[in-house]
């Protein structure tokens, strides 16, 4: 298993501002993932963050809105830029471990409220 | 497009009941199916299934996969109030990305 520390755990932000969420893993992992869970919805993948390369974004998500950094194999950040109330969600980072990266473990999540 | 459908969407049972949660999927390059329990924010990993017909068991929880019919079930026996949560099914395909179902919200009343 992997222990993932995500912060902040929650924040209330003004519209138009940006928030950076950090994710620290206790072991080196190849792939890290960022998800969003809007109220009453399931998890939606925002992007895959690989160390040493640009993040790969899913349809509907763009780098200008959700810039991601992956400076090393244990750390990643997701920034939610120019926030609007529609960005109010839980944001989760996840890592895949095991021989096939299939056992995905999650950080504690960041509950973001944009007012 | 990969698709994961869970049923029922919500369920209310009494303590001691047995429940069965369903997950069906359509994926182009299936690798594994995973079950999670989500109580507050972060999902907690329960099971990973890759082979048909092999039951995974952990205490009162068990799960099995049918790759021919493209579904999985999660069973919880002798339910307790602490089992109240959203149970998420996810399918891994392609480059280790997961597609999640909408979840089943289980409420166990005392």
Number of domains of chain A: 1
Number of helices of chain B: 0
What is the β-strand count of chain B? 11
The profile of the biggest β sheet of chain B is: 6 strands, mixed
Features:
heterodimer; A: 115 residues; mainly beta; Immunoglobulin-like; 4-stranded antiparallel sheet; 0% helix; globular; B: 110 residues; 6-stranded mixed sheet; 11 strands
Description of the molecule:
The complex is a heterodimer of chains A (115) and B (110). Chain A has no helices and eleven strands. Chain A is mainly β and 115 residues long. In chain A, the strands form two sheets. In chain A, strands 2, 4, 5, 6, 9, 10 and 11 form a seven-stranded mixed beta sheet that branches. A four-stranded antiparallel beta sheet of chain A has the order 1-3-8-7, with no helix packed on it. In chain A, strand 5 and strand 6 form a beta hairpin. Chain A is globular and about 35 Å long. Chain B is mainly β. Chain B has one domain (3-109): Sandwich (Immunoglobulin-like), CATH 2.60.40.10. Chain B is globular. The model of chain B has no long low-confidence stretch (mean pLDDT 92). At the A-B interface, strand 5, strand 9 and strand 10 of A face strand 4, strand 5, strand 9 and strand 10 of B.
């Amino acid at each position: 298993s992997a222990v993932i520390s995500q912060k902040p755990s929650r924040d209330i932000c003004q519209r138009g501002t940006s928030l950076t969420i950090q994710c620290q893993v206790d072991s080196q992992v190849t792939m890290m993932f960022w998800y969003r869970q809007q109220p009453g919805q399931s998890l939606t993948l925002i992007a895959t963050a690989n160390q040493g390369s640009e993040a790969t974004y899913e349809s509907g998500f763009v780098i200008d809105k959700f810039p991601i950094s992956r400076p090393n194999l244990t750390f990643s950040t997701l920034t939610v830029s120019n926030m609007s109330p529609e960005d109010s969600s839980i944001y989760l980072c996840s890592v895949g471990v095991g021989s096939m990266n299939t056992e995905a473990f999650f950080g504690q999540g960041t509950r973001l409220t944009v007012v | 497009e990969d698709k994961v459908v869970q049923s029922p969407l919500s369920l209310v049972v009494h303590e001691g009941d047995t429940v069965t949660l369903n997950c069906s999927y359509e994926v182009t390059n299936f690798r594994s199916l995973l079950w999670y329990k989500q109580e507050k924010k972060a999902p907690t990993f329960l099971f990973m299934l890759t082979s048909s017909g092999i039951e995974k068991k952990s205490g009162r929880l068990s799960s099995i996969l049918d790759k021919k019919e493209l579904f999985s079930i999660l069973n919880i026996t002798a339910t307790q109030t602490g089992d109240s949560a959203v149970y998420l099914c996810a399918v891994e395909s392609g480059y280790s990305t997961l597609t999640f179902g909408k979840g089943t919200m289980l409420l166990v009343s005392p």
